[in-house]
Amino acid sequence: MKVIIILSFFSVLMGFGQSNTEVFLFDLEVTDNKIEVDNGKNISNNEGYDNQPAFLNDDKILFASTRNGQTDIAQYHVNYNSKIFINSTEGGEYTPLKIPNKNAVSAVRLDKDGKQRLYAYDLSNGESTELINDLVVAYYTWYDENTTVSAVIEDEQLNLFVTNISENKSRKYATNVGRSFHKIPNSKLVSFIYKESDKQWQIRSLDPLTGKNKLIANSMEGVEDICWLNGRTLLSGKNGTLYKLTLKRDNNWKKVADLSSYGIANITRLSTNPQGTKLLIAGDLISEMPDTVEDTNTPNAITTQSILTEAQAAAAVQKHVEPFNKRQLNDFANTFDKDVVVNRFPKDYMYSGRNALKENYRQFFKNNEKANIKVLNRMVLKNKVIDEELVTINNITVRQATIYDVDKDGINAMTFIRNKNATSNPETIVNKQLEAYNTKDIDEFTKTYSKDITLHLFPDDLTTNGNADLKKRYDAMFEKVPDLNAEIVNRIVLGNKVIDKEKVTINGKIYYAIAIYEVKDGLISKVTFIQ
Q: For the SnoaL-like domain, which residue ranges apply (predicted)?
């Protein structure tokens, strides 16, 4: 992880610690195989969370937007450049969509008591009605005015359900799916993201009437947000760049436009109007560097203040261990923030909210007579804690690692790292690259990495792609920092992963960071940095 501290400065558009999402509206012009994106405008322009945009009609746009400390349904009028809110509930609304053939919109509502359900909102008076009372819907789309296709939180993962609203009947058709659902233009199909494979996520089609699904294409690595420009062309984004894939024409995703000039650091949700002339994008904004920072090679340019001391963060995580072992469900759940998010590494969403966590562990304790967790090793960096844990469930004992993100209200995020079998000792190659790093031997250093090596900022923001890019960046770093040195202060080895907390010397100053190395076929294939 010694790498990222320096490498981040070689691109001013990288953006660190992004927390502000905005919604942008663009004009689209499509000719033959060329797509032009122009006249971008920030239509949310609001401090905090603005996300999940969709077209209500030709001149009105829906999105989730923060006001008065909670998220509600915003409606933006294109012709008048104005925004209003169409609901007023105590809960927070997400993913607003027009309900076909009705004067109403729908949204996922998370109430203050932790209840999460899909609701309809009458556009004439704002009144809401629960649509599906027995499923915890996380993401969804409408197939027709009576049918939804949705990702439902179930058994600690997202599973695909088709629900007939009028008959109140639901049927599960797929497991381990993503958050992106879209009606495929000029068809009777819906697309969804299939995440059963750790190596490659798939974009698949579903016939909601029969449950049959087929492979359409692969998504870009680590990307699950897509939309349809028309019946043949998909749009997606990675970092600040928009890509397209035309079926039966493009062999791979093709770059359309770099949107970083609009301040977009990371594209997430996308949506087009039915005519394919307008594009909505939600994305993280590039964090501006402080005015007082002039030297972009100064690590302080990207460091952030910890909310808690490291001792306080470790103590907050430790609080959940004893009540878990004693099966004290309420005490265990109360060590987590009410809005806690639970993922599989690096950012595979499982569920969110203290109530959802409580219900998951209620079932876990019910299904398992014995459960015990023991912390074998712990590393702490600012408000993040990584524990190496020995978990015994009934008569089976396994090792795992968990990343905890802590704030003043407790554990606000928990990310489980799988113990994946290794074909060789991963420490060997990680130690070899450390030695080459400290001797600044660029050739030996790059030999320890695979040709398709990727470097990421946790959870999964790509910063370096490929061995050639790695060599170029590190060669410059080795030349610019004569006293560059890294030493390991703590290590966890889990299957094919090596997790190091490292002490890094840069221009006479000491910094700490955590690197998660993943090893494949004897070489480092991926590194995720926490700093």
A: 317-410, 432-525
